């Protein structure tokens, strides 16, 4: 029987601003990542909308810790300010709409998404989630010991 992978369920809050300046019709900001205890339901819901600024909650994102992403979790934790990474998209046909697609805690996974030209923003990780990630990373990942390589000029010609 396979071991179940640790998982958190979260919801993402996106803030939409209408005409924040003369150059933009719409601006989107990832406003928050909160635990999803199941009380939010399955569908997005508008938390507030005053015509200028709206906040919408998108529930149901599973953040699963995978063994092959251990280095990415370690890099996030040792960055000095661990974060949630949220990949999100804007509707090309209706630029007033945006939604989150994925939430991760892996620095490496976020880097791959950015390399693929995706939008990825980050938000500070809460203390409880940081402790959870730290405990898992301590138990499941060991960084490779860096070994100093001698410059080629100091090696014998046959070893270069």
Automatic annotation (TrEMBL):
It comes from the Bacteria. This is DUF3305 domain-containing protein. It comes from Ideonella margarita.
């Amino acid at each position: 029987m396979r071991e179940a992978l640790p998982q958190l369920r979260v919801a993402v809050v996106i803030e939409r601003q209408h005409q924040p300046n003369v150059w933009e019709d719409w601006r989107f900001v990832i406003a928050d990542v909160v635990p999803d205890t199941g009380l939010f339901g399955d569908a997005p819901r508008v938390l507030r909308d005053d015509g200028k600024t709206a906040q919408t909650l998108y529930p149901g994102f599973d953040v699963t810790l995978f063994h092959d992403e251990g280095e990415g979790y370690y890099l996030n934790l040792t960055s000095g300010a661990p974060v949630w990474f949220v990949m999100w998209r804007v509707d090309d046909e209706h630029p007033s709409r945006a939604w989150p697609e994925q939430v991760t805690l892996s620095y490496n996974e976020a880097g791959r998404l950015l390399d693929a030209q995706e939008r990825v923003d980050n938000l500070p990780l809460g203390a409880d989630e940081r402790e959870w990630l730290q405990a898992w990373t301590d138990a499941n990942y060991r960084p490779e010991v860096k070994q100093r390589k001698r410059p080629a000029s100091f090696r014998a010609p046959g070893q270069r």
